[in-house]
Amino acid sequence: MSTTSWRRTTTAAAVLTAALVAVPVGAAQADTSQATASPLTVTTAAGANLAVAPVSASSDGTSDDRGPTPSGVLGGQSIVTAGVAVADVRAFATGLSGSCAGLVGSGGGVVVGPGGTCAVSAGSGGVRIALTSTVVLTADAVVSSCTASSTGTSSTKTTIIGGQLTGPLGATAAVSAGTSGSLLGLVSVSTGSTGTQATAGPVSTTALQLGLLSGTAAVRVGAVTCGRNAVVVPTPAVPAAGLPIALAGAAVVAGAARRALRPAPAPHAAGGAS
């Protein structure tokens, strides 16, 4: 074999080995995503904990997923006296997920769109949460939402439309996104806010946490979580850690090829004439 042929053989073996390292086993999967939502949880004066069943969605990167529709009405309690519990959760095969949940008026709803953002329809009749007969929160809608992406951008948002807390003797206080603290000297209030962070999640927020300072009644509305979403990295046929062994094997193959292609020696000529 000539020097040129030998070089071609060894080069081909090295290229083959590098290709095995670079090529994944099977087709590359898309990114994973997930989201959850808990529309409503109520702790009654009697200490009972009641909740509309949470919903969730997840994707392994092969197809989109969407969670079921929640029941809408929470029985066995007399604290949430107007409004319906709503939620929508979606997980996309692209690595994006979105979640939206809370309370809206009759006929209202929430929808997570293809981009993961939440559209809110307030409906009619509004929301009414009565911790006591004289401590009442009313609103047109109380909703939180989130989005997360495997590329590293996540966001949360709280939407409270027309929120107002009424206490004894007609005292009132506005309740909006970003409210936190004690109102009217009777109630602890915490609402979610709007923000964006440069991570793949998980991110979570709750639209409204409302309770008597005495601890005898409390409500949590619209708890959502998006992520963690992840980038799926394909597995190479030959892991990088095994590259030295693979290269050594390629050298053995090249050596065998060189020996196999070496021309046989020419036969000796017969003895000369006498």
The whole-number mean of residue pLDDT values reads: 82
Low-confidence spans: pLDDT under 50, at least 5 residues? Answer: 12-27, 269-274
Using the CA coordinates, give the radius of gyration.
33 Å
Largest sheet: 7 strands, antiparallel
What order do the helices and strands follow?
Answer: HEEEEEEEEEEEEEEEEEEEEH
Class computed from helices, strands and strand pairing? mainly beta
Distance between the termini: 38 Å
Gross geometry: elongated
**What's the total count of β strands?**
20
Strand content: 35-45%
Total of helices: 2
Helical content class: 10-25%
Number of domains: 1
Kindly list the characteristics that best describe this protein.
single chain, mainly beta, 7-stranded antiparallel sheet, 14% helix, disordered C terminus
Structure description:
By secondary structure, the protein is mainly β. The chain has one domain (33-226). It is 14% helix and 41% strand. The chain contains two helices and 20 strands. Strands 1, 2, 3, 16, 17, 19 and 20 form a seven-stranded antiparallel β-sheet that branches. The chain has a six-stranded antiparallel β-sheet with strand order 4-6-7-12-13-18, with no helix packed on it. β1 and β2 (49-51) form a beta hairpin. The longest helix has 20 residues, at 3-22. It is elongated. It starts with a helix and ends in a 13-residue tail after the last helix. 38% of the residues are buried. Mean pLDDT is 82; it is low at 12-27 and 269-274.
